[in-house]
Design a protein that fits this description.
This protein has helices at about 10-20, 35-40, 50-60, 70-75, 100-110, 125-135, 160-165, 175-185, 185-190, 200-230, 235-245, 265-275, 285-305, 310-315, 335-345, 360, 375-380, 400-405, 420-425; strands at about 1-5, 25-30, 65, 80, 115-120, 145-150, 170, 195-200, 315-320, 350-355, 370, 385, 410-415, 430. By secondary structure, the chain is α/β, with parallel strands linked by helices. Helix 1 crosses helix 3 (about 50-60) and helix 10 crosses helix 12 (about 265-275). The termini are far apart.
């Protein structure tokens, strides 16, 4: 089949490369000429393990191409995926659908054959109805169907998630849409990946509901971590104890500084706005959003406490190890590191930082932070070492070297990657999350 992927960002590029690897002919379309030029040169616009090699192999095989022309890119396509950004809209927090609707109009005006138009972007309930209306309004003479097919990709593990998905959700209102989508995903269906066919609105809501539920699990265990600290319990054992219950499961029960990234913050907010519009409030998700935002600055205050309090902290230096919202990505969107760094600087603490992949993205967001070339450079002269992101590179630091370089052997481990007893035996004043 021929597939057109409109939008060559995170979702579009990963999805397009994986579809090409399945044997489909794929054209990725983007209006950013610079991005397309870089892709032609083999330069990826994002960091995702394995993506560069996957793109290169499929370009060489002739199954993956890039263009800035939507009309040329969708010509002859059986399925046209819309994978453009839907950021939170300024002012009210709704998902900004400007790019989605622009693409829908262009697709309608350029459609040269029967095709299925697929919303891959995360969009609020009812967006597919509007996309269908816009395309129909263009007066196209070709048959088309609008389908919802949300993505469930984890940054840092996206290729594996795409090729070995928990489920594939397809929301369609007609058999034409379902038939084409069955063929699109036939390689996965042969591997017995479960495909769930639903109505279009149900599919749109599934994506938001899934992300809100996962955000709730993260926020729940973070609040349990706070309680553990008060009562002298261990949050990691609590997580194991409840995660072994099959009804709960162990995933997303790791205490830390709060969630960030491209999905959870904006999707929980967009879900709240949708619920508000339909006068069906979601109080649990409201609390999740509020608690998560508060937690990020609270982690900054945790570091200040480790420095001896607000008065003692002024003039001292903190080394932040990790800036991206999670490891194996360069994504800085809504990263807890942003609020933590700002809280420290507001208290008069000088901040130095290092991240294996996120430095370029972090620099314009944290102009007052000293960006370093290595973890040990950041640690040099620091009064406290703070582990913000659980990159593998930080799991086996040379602790003897850390003590030699740092001004004081103080560590705040916001990801609980070290054993408290081992750290204290090594001479560190060690603070973690939810553990005595």
């Amino acid at each position: 089949m021929k597939i057109a992927m409109v939008g060559s960002g995170y979702v579009g590029l990963v999805s397009g490369a994986c579809f090409a690897d399945f044997g489909h002919d794929v054209v990725c379309i983007d209006k950013d000429q610079g991005k397309i030029d870089r892709l032609h040169a083999g330069i990826m616009p994002i960091y995702e393990p394995g993506l560069a090699a996957l793109v290169e192999s499929n370009v060489k095989a002739g199954r993956l191409a890039f263009t800035t022309s939507l009309a040329e890119g969708i010509k002859g396509a059986d399925a046209i995926f819309i994978a453009v950004g839907t950021p939170s809209r300024r002012g009210d927090g709704h998902a900004d659908l400007t790019f989605v609707y622009q693409v829908a109009r262009e697709v309608g005006e350029s459609l040269a054959n029967d095709a299925v138009v697929v919303t891959k972007s995360t969009v609020p309930v009812g967006t597919g109805d509007e996309v269908e209306r816009i395309i129909r309004e263009t007066g196209t003479a070709h048959r088309f169907s609008v389908v919802s097919n949300p993505e469930f990709l984890r940054e840092g593990a996206a290729i594996g998630d795409f090729k070995r998905p928990d489920r594939i959700v397809i929301g369609s209102e007609d058999e034409f849409g379902r038939e084409v989508m069955r063929e699109v995903y036939r390689p996965l269906f042969l591997n017995e990946s479960p495909i769930l066919f639903t109505s279009r609105r149900t599919s749109e809501l599934i994506k938001y509901a899934a992300n809100a539920f996962l955000a709730t699990k993260i926020t729940f265990i973070n609040e349990m971590a706070d309680l553990c600290e008060k009562v002298g319990a261990n949050v990691q054992d609590v997580s194991r104890g409840i995660g072994m219950d099959n009804r709960i499961g162990p995933k997303f029960l790791h205490a830390g500084p709060g969630y960030g990234g491209s999905c959870f913050p904006k999707d929980t907010l967009a879900l709240l706005k949708t619920a508000e519009d339909y006068q069906s409030p979601i109080r649990i998700v409201e609390a999740v959003v509020k608690v998560n935002e508060s937690r990020k600055r609270a982690m900054g205050r945790k570091v200040i406490d480790a420095l001896g309090g607000i008065e003692a902290a002024r003039g001292k230096k903190a080394a932040l190890l990790g800036l991206t919202f999670k490891p194996n990505t360069d994504d800085m969107r809504d990263s807890p590191a942003l609020a933590i760094a700002q809280t420290l600087m507001d208290a008069g603490v000088a901040v130095a930082a290092y991240d294996p992949e996120g430095m370029e993205q972090a620099r314009p967001l944290l102009p007052e932070v000293t960006m370093c070339e290595s973890a040990y450079e950041a640690i040099t002269g620091a009064d406290v070492v703070v582990i913000v992101t659980e990159w593998d590179a930080f799991r086996a630091l040379d602790l003897k070297r850390v003590k030699e370089l740092a001004k004081a052997p103080v560590m705040v481990d916001l990801r609980n990657i070290y054993n408290p007893e081992d750290m204290r035996a090594a001479g560190f004043a060690y603070t973690s999350v939810g553990r005595a």
